[in-house]
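anyone seen this seq b4? input:
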Amino acid sequence: MSNQSLLQEFQQQLADSIPSNVFVKVSLGNYKGNDKELKNVYVRRIKIKKVEMLSFTYRNKTRDIVKNFSIADGLTRINHFISNDFKICTFFSTEKEVIVEHDKKGIISVRERLIKTEVPVTLSHDKEKKRLIQPAGKTYLQELKISDANGAVYKNAQDKYKQINQYIALLDPLIRTLPARGMKNVVDMGSGKGYLTFALYDYLVNVLKTEAKVTGVEYRQDLVDLCNKIASGSNFTGLDFVQGTIEDYEAENINLLIALHACDTATDDAIYKGIKGNAELIVVAPCCHKQIRRQIEKGKAVNELEFLTKYGIFLERQAEMVTDGIRALILEYFGYKTKVFEFISDAHTPKNVLVVGVKTKEQLVAKEEILEKIKRTKAYFGIEYHHLEKLADLM
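predicted toks r here
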């Protein structure tokens, strides 16, 4: 049977599975298209406002994107993917599993495997997520007005609860890469009301079952007092909060340093404290990039991007990328393997960027090359200095 005939037969199976209510899901893999970020696509049936649809989860290297389509449009999209970009497609029904595969010569084969136990079909739109931080019996969540005494999350705190879990889920794989000798010096710079700080301590002690000492650094004394009271009431003996600024706080032999949404150069202060403290892992979510933006505006460099940077919104985005790009280079200079990736909060806030540095003893650092890159970047954008560069005495 020809490739075209096999595909047509398979596509008819997909189409028939919807009205007969046997469609469970489709998995598309071995992507060979032009999108360098895309890895896999997963499709399932959902119902939104009583209308059946096909929900596509586009699994990228750094994040997932979900898009919902009508049944007809969804089937068309699957058929296009099978015919062009994905070389393996697995269709799961309540009765069988069907695998369509392109070999290296482009020849298509179709294999089927009967399923003895029928898979139940669910059209639930909201898939239940497994949270690393569960609300039951958590005194700190009650004190922070996230949940009640029975562990039920308040309706107006759902977004904050999801946000806490999202942060912990992001930190989880990073923390697991560190040596298993305890987290005896964790610092949360600019801890605020302590939502993440409490959850992080809870995760380290009660999920990872590791010895932990966590300190939240916060300038506002009233929040420090409140958080220490809650920590004591929760019997979190290894968690404390201290009053002070990021700039003034000193620590050595840090396992993990976090700074979420420290404004403008406060992020640089936090990164530098991590570098000085020989932190094994540095995680920052920068906020505001005024220092570099002002210098780009002042420098008025003439280059290929000036047609973009004359617009405020583009200048703002460019300043963000340049600021965080130089931060990553400086981390690399000091022996950190860096990652910069985007995440989207469950709290419906704008997109955020995480800059991550993992200390690696084995990494060979081309320091002169890094300094030259920073120098060229500053010259290109008309920047006099980067605040972190100044702190680290690299000018």
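The first helix runs from residue 3 to 17. The longest strand covers residues 38-48. kinda curious what u guys think
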